[in-house]
Amino acid sequence: MQDDFQKCSSEQTLFIKRSVGENILIVSIYVDDLIYTGNDMSMMIKFKKSMMQAFDMTDLGKMRFFLGIEVLQKPGGIFVCQQKYANDVLKKFAMSESKHVKSLIVPGRKISRDVDCVIVDDTYFKQIVGSLMYLTATRPDIMFNVSLISRYMSKPTELHLQAAKRILRYLKGTTSYEIFYRKEGEENLHAFTDSDYAGDEDDSKRAVSWMSKKQPIVTLSSIEAEFVAAAASACQAMWMRRVLRNLTHTQDSSTVIIDLVKDGEIELVHCGTQEQVADLMTKALKLEAFHKLRKKMRMLDLAEVN
């Protein structure tokens, strides 16, 4: 490690350099792509100069794209989205002229294995799901539904294909929606967690968090399901906290919630149904509730912001 950089112990592609006072330079590297930021212009200029002397590099200026993610920098914060990619996906699957819908799924409708319906081309279905999975990096509003249809990659039926196309139709009307990160705000991390007990009619495993995946075990009660979901959320929150603090820490996963609460690392707070953002990841919601929670996740229509 040169020039007094320190590797973040919890994120191997993140490097941090500190100088006098609270001056800091943060560098993130992915293969041959590199982005950097900081609060000291002289540190950033010196870093850029040293890198261009050591390597054959092209300066692309202020970040606008990174790994397929679009970044729009505003005075009050930044927007991140995949609008171009979303439009490309719609075009690829001939859905650019489709009629858009306001909800991803009919509220209360269950999608499960369908033995009676006609089986469709699994290659085509997998292509749609794969394209949608990449979009979830900036579209948490579609995460639950994409996770749901991804369970039926083997022998998908017309029912599953129609569910996938409905997601595309939803995207048709929301390509301009982006996540907004405010420049200034509170520094505390807040995590919302929820479980859909016995929500999967096929095997009773639950979808949890933005990663929205099935839990690895079958739970026997809603309390147990909530505990497993909370543990997963706590692990994710602690990882983010370690990245921010650049700390190393290990925990016994079987007692993670109890230990973290005892140590004062996290605080468990009851969240009412109306404010439970995690519901967006676990169930089909009524339109009004869906729009409310989507906004709480700081997903805004860029056209309306401008």
UniProtKB/TrEMBL annotation:
It comes from the Eukaryota. It holds the Pfam family RVT_2. Residues 2-101 form the Reverse transcriptase Ty1/copia-type domain. This is Mitochondrial protein. The lineage of its organism: Eukaryota, Viridiplantae, Streptophyta, Embryophyta, Tracheophyta.
